[in-house]
Amino acid sequence: MKSTNIIIGLLFISNLGFASLDNFGGGARSNAMGKASVGNIDIWSNYNNQAALAKLKKIEFGVSYENQFQLEDLSTKALAFYYPTKLGGFNLNYTQFGFDLYKESKIGLGYSKALGKHLWAGIQINQMRIKINQIEGEQSKYNFEIGLLAEIFHDFYLGFHISNPSQEKFETLYFDEAIPTIARLGVSWHLSKETMLNSEVEKDFDNDARVKVGIEHQIVKDLYIRLGVSSKPNQISFGLGYQYKIVKMNLAYSKHQNLGYTPSFDLNISF
Q1: Is the pTM of this model over 0.85?
Q2: Residues 137-166: pLDDT tens digits?
Q3: Omega within 30 of 0 (cis) for the link into 165
Q4: Rounded Cα gap, residues 44 and 37, in angstroms
Q5: What domain range includes position 160?
Q6: In this structure, what is the dihedral angle of CA atoms 170, 25, 83, 268, given to the nearest 10 degrees?
Q7: Closest residue by Cα to residue 264 from 10, 24, 3, 42
């Protein structure tokens, strides 16, 4: 079974390119909402939009795990940390994806700051690393991400984020593969204290634009339900979230139109 998973993983990677360096690791809350999260304000803005981190008031730490298409060899593990100061906020994150024959990792260090009462900005520098096999070895590249978040009117946020605008790529003797350059523009509308509606458009410079929509609703105190849909490829998703004092836990399940189900989980603590 393990060898079968590896073969499937290699086929998947060869067809879709670098599988986690396009900002996998955005947390189960985002996954449950169809990844419509460029306007979300939480610890996983480490991946979704660093500008939103500037609105967090406490030190926060999060861990997440995503088991893509229920194949262990295609799992993604992520850590996220945020530290606010009077001069702005500093964030650190780490992501790892893959298996023995193909492994990716990403380390990000960022800074975010309020530019006014209703505008926030963030930037992050990344080290991207891949390990293919003993022949190809390891290779590292550096790139950056930029994010903006604006409160257009009360509880209505507009977010923008772009990753790898310099269009860095990995090159070896046998292949030449670009790290995805992805731009996202979307809104997060807090319809009430209990309900939030998100929508965004994502454009990978090498692929068609994707449309993503997600909704979050607080069923009872500290318990949330989430639903989401996205296009190209068509996916549906759902999940639950629970908060107990300083601890938040989120679960998500998404279904790809052809490749099946992907479960994910995250745990977050604020100090």
Answers
A1: yes
A2: 678 899 999 999 999 999 999 999 999 999
A3: no
A4: 9
A5: 2-270
A6: -160
A7: 24
